[in-house]
Amino acid sequence: MTNAISFRIENALPRLEYAAEQIESFCSENGFTLKETYHIRLVLDELLTNVILYGYTDDDVHFICVDLHKDDRGLTVRIEDDGARFNLLEVPAPNVHAPLEERPIGGLGIHLVQKLMSSIQYERIGDRNVITLKKNFCSTEQEGDSDGSCCERCK
C-alpha cells in the first residue's frame, strides 16, 4: 500500500479517464469507502475539467499535475497547472434557493467542491495555479477520544 501518488495528465478531456483510474486505484489501496471515493473523484473531475475547458487560450499541450497523500487524519490533494490565473475561492457562492430559470450558468461545481472538502487553499506561484484540498476523515467539531481522535478511523 502506498499512501501517496503523483500523476499528470494532458489538458484533454479524454485524459480524465486516466485520472479517474489513478484516483480509484489509490482510494481502493488506501481503504477509502465507496462514498469517500465518489466524493474525491467528483471533486477532482470537476476541477480538472474546469482547467482543461477554461484554463488555456491556445491549442498547445499542457500538463496538469495531481498529487494525493493520505495520512491518519485525512487526504491532501494538490493540483498544479500552468493555465490562466483562476482562484476558485473568489467565485461568488451561487444562490441555490433561486428558481432554476433565474440562476446563472456555472458556479455549482465549485460550490460542490467547497461543500465536499474540509479546506481549500489557492496560490499563484509564478505562472502556475496551485490548489491544495484537504478532506478530514472526521469533523473537528466532534468530541475526541483521549488520544485526540474523533472516531475509530482516525486512530
What does this structure look like?
- This protein has about 160 residues and is an alpha+beta fold.
- The chain contains 3 helices and 5 strands, in the order βααββαββ.
- The protein has a 5-stranded antiparallel sheet, with helices on one face.
- Helix 2 packs antiparallel against helix 3 (about 110-115).
- The chain is globular and about 40 Å long.
- About 15% of the residues are buried.
Helices and strands in order, then pairings?
Elements: E1 4-10, H1 16-29, H2 34-54, E2 63-70, E3 74-81, H3 108-116, E4 119-125, E5 128-136
Antiparallel strand pairs: 1-2, 2-3, 3-5, 4-5
Helix pairs in contact: 1-2, 2-3
Low-confidence stretches: 140-148
Q: Write out the strand line-up for the largest beta sheet, numbering strands in chain order.
A: 1-2-3-5-4
State which percent range the strand residues make up: 25-35%
Helix content class:
25-40%
**Rg over CA atoms:** 17 Å
The H/E string reads EHHEEHEE
Reported for the largest beta sheet, the result is: 5 strands, antiparallel
Give the end-to-end Cα distance, rounded to a whole number of Å: 18 Å
Count of helix runs = 3
Structural class by SSE content: alpha+beta
Record field, number of beta strands: 5
Chain-averaged pLDDT: 86
The 3D shape can be described as: globular
